[in-house]
Amino acid sequence: MASSSVPQGRPETERPQVLLLSPPSAELDEVLSARFELLKSWESPLPLDRFLATHAADVRALLVINLFTVDGALLDALPTLRFVCTTSAGVNHIDLAECARRGIAVANAGTVFSQEVAEYAVGLLIDVLRRVSACDRYVRRGLWPRGGDYPLGSKLGGKRVGIVGLGSIGSEVAKRLQAFGCPISYFSRSRKPQFPYTYFPSVADLAAQSDVLVVACALTHETHHIINKDVMAALGKEGIIINVGRGALVDEAELVKRLMRGEIGGAGLDVFEHEPAVPEELFGVDNVVLSPHVAMQAFESSSDLSRLTAANLEAFFSDRPLLTPVPLPA
Amino acid sequence: MESLGVLLAARIDPYLEAELDRRFKLFRFWESPPAQRREFLRENAEAIRAVVGSPARGADAEMIDLLPRLEIVANFGVGLDKVDLRRCRERGVRVVYTPDVVTDDTADLAIGLAIAAMRRICDSDRYLRDGSWKDKGDYKLTSKFSGKTVGILGLGRIGQAVAKRAEGFGCPICYCSRSEKRHTNYKYYPSVLELAANCQVLVVACPLTEETRHIINREVIDALGPKGVLVNIGRGPHVDECELVSALLDGQLGAAGLDVFEHEPHAPEQLFGLDNVVLVPHIGTDTLETSKAMADLILENLEAHVSNRPLLTPVF
Question: What is the ipTM of this complex?
Fold first, then answer.
């Protein structure tokens, strides 16, 4: 069974069923519909539990779009499910322990988004330090001709960057920031000797030796609020936090308090604890850059994502190894 | 010894101003109303032996001619387009500037502007702050910077620093320069038009001279095209601003990140409603660290001049 080429289309009767609970992009829909029968819960007038009981009784694969929560209750309603495929890199919306218990395999988006999330983190950092968005607002409000003063920015080169989570995204961030002359250190679950960066055994230790923290790790029970009060205190008054992971990695209330009191230098945040809600105290503040969870939203990756998703589903249905399996708890 | 009379041509930097005042005899050009500036220069011509200029106001021929005792012009910045170099040479006036210390900040901003423009950082910040994320749902897809071909116009210190940073993003690099730089591996194009046709992100990083005025004209903008991105960290007059505005309004150019404009402090208002431009008020070197480094370099050069020691960073 050597061939990895995928048939372009199958007769309707032969197409395996894939359940979707929220809409895919048009591109993903098109790519998948050629090979799979997509069961779309939102197109039915039935409430979800009735829909699943009626139409998804035999479904073996679930495609999760937009971080839809996959918990024990949902899995109870899908007794024949054996595969959950998510279009995100993060998997904190999926109860991995429950999947393991039920023998359900999980695949994610692998490294499809890593470069654009990493470049977005760098973009946020430059924006915070050099006040790009604040200055852009200044110009658009017509303030430049009036000659009002605005604060100087801060130089990026030489700033000590601490990366929290040196996975695929973290290592792409490191590679980029090195070229700007930033010394790189990191905290990760385990040392990564293949990288030339300095390892710290705790985030607080990392923060104490850093001017900037870039948060790029997965959200798990252990990493909830990993950027807490102690870490922020260790980072110090001039410190900058860039978060492109998950909102709950950072104690958001504590961060807001410090930002309002001038106890931290600034922040670039793409994720928040209760999206799309964002603490409104931040809206009037110029030393934060806020973005609506877009770090992974680039055109170029959407075709990569469609191909990868189709390939993972094909692999599952053909009993071949998944391309981007997510390790499950033992 | 007579204290060096220094004319500060513009309000550049408070630290620089305070130090000039402390160490020398400082004349502040902006203190006299515009109509009386020639008079101001005449009145103080006996004392003024140095001018410190900036991109806002330098030392033009008129000013130089009104200062018969002028010995040295110190330019706060590496761009010399606001100093009449020919007149200085004719008069035997020394010129110093601030190379190297400005390189990193300017290159950092170029990359920051490219990412901000392509990934719509400023616009998505606005989208969030004005409540649209809650009301209208997710922001749209944007265009990735990593891996795109970056074309650099002018491969001097700043251009090379931009290249090094862009390489970290997996961007292939090409360039156009007055001469080929054989010590680099980057692809050389002999004309800016060919450069624009072969890259996706064009960064302007060359000096402004008579030859490079409006070097980014409509033909070049069209060659860059609807998916192309223009980043200007050079000087406003490098770009035909009217054509740039019209191309952006018509969707003929993909995006732009602009630190400089033809008529600073005025940026074209027609761009203020666009989401694919980033507009910043000439902040290429506006960091605490670099402003101080530039000021210190100016001061050291002036001290060297009065002590008859070699100038640190002369143009000539």
Answer: 0.96
